[in-house]
């Protein structure tokens, strides 16, 4: 799950609770007449309008009490309305992973589990199913494995994964909109298992998606792999953003800079921040560093997005499509292991 840059996080925190109060006082939408045509220069697809922002947060899907929750989940998250939620706690843990320890075993297990669930989800995504159907599948697979879906209860998020369709850059809330045969949809899954988080995502192409959408997805997948290829002990973190942005620009696409990859392990979001665009960060990777790379690419040259009134969904300003792929990386003494790769 992407971590917003500092400015975006501050905006979201200031506005989210006020917005979510309205989310519990307005009727829900049941029709999707607000899908609008796409800008012609970007292809043929349905643009999701801010009018489709969720107005009523659904109750969270239940999680057995035997499954440990991350510290940030309010103690009464499953029993109280949002305005009565108790403050969540702070996750604790060192930055990075001690190689050769139970800590390494734990983060590898959580990451592999997330990758397995994502792969299974990719096999069932099809036109007509809703993104809430996808969330139900993710939730069931998580709890059956004894894992907690990390997004559930994170800053009041009401669902177990995020689903971002077409012009949604990130943090789409699963809802009742049926997927169209022309859609592309990103599913971002994070699982909390035995005290560690595993985080991964992929953008899936529905059968009638046009050539421009397929190219966006292909280039984004390639950009992630290029970012991974420059990882290793002693390598510069800035190298990740350099190769990703160069690849995007070569294909007439751009990189959204409002979201970053992040350190992960015992904490859902930690340092370092992983920038997906050209930058001057001086940090070097060292063995034990564990982080995500998750570049959000956008069609055209204007990659910025705005937050909907649901407090989470970020859509492109231009109506262009966005795609994203994500893997969790562990720097070893000799290279970089992709913990969420299962194929």
From TrEMBL:
GO terms for biological process: proteolysis. Residues 106-333 form the Peptidase M24 domain. GO terms for molecular function: initiator methionyl aminopeptidase activity; metal ion binding; metalloaminopeptidase activity. It comes from the Eukaryota. It catalyses: Release of N-terminal amino acids, preferentially methionine, from peptides and arylamides. Binds 2 divalent metal cations per subunit. Has a high-affinity and a low affinity metal-binding site. The true nature of the physiological cofactor is under debate. The enzyme is active with cobalt, zinc, manganese or divalent iron ions. Most likely, methionine aminopeptidases function as mononuclear Fe(2+)-metalloproteases under physiological conditions, and the catalytically relevant metal-binding site has been assigned to the histidine-containing high-affinity site. Keywords: Aminopeptidase, Hydrolase, Metal-binding, Protease. Pfam families: Peptidase_M24. A divalent metal cation 2 binds at residues 199, 262, 294, 326. A divalent metal cation 1 binds at residues 188, 199, 326. The keyword Cell membrane does not apply. Its cofactor is Co(2+); Zn(2+); Mn(2+); Fe(2+). Its EC number is 3.4.11.18. Substrate binds at residues 171, 269. It is an enzyme of class 3 (hydrolase). Belongs to the peptidase M24A family. Methionine aminopeptidase type 1 subfamily. PANTHER family: METHIONINE AMINOPEPTIDASE, METHIONINE AMINOPEPTIDASE 1D, MITOCHONDRIAL. Cotranslationally removes the N-terminal methionine from nascent proteins. The N-terminal methionine is often cleaved when the second residue in the primary sequence is small and uncharged (Met-Ala-, Cys, Gly, Pro, Ser, Thr, or Val). HAMAP family: MetAP_1. This is Methionine aminopeptidase. It comes from Cutaneotrichosporon cavernicola.
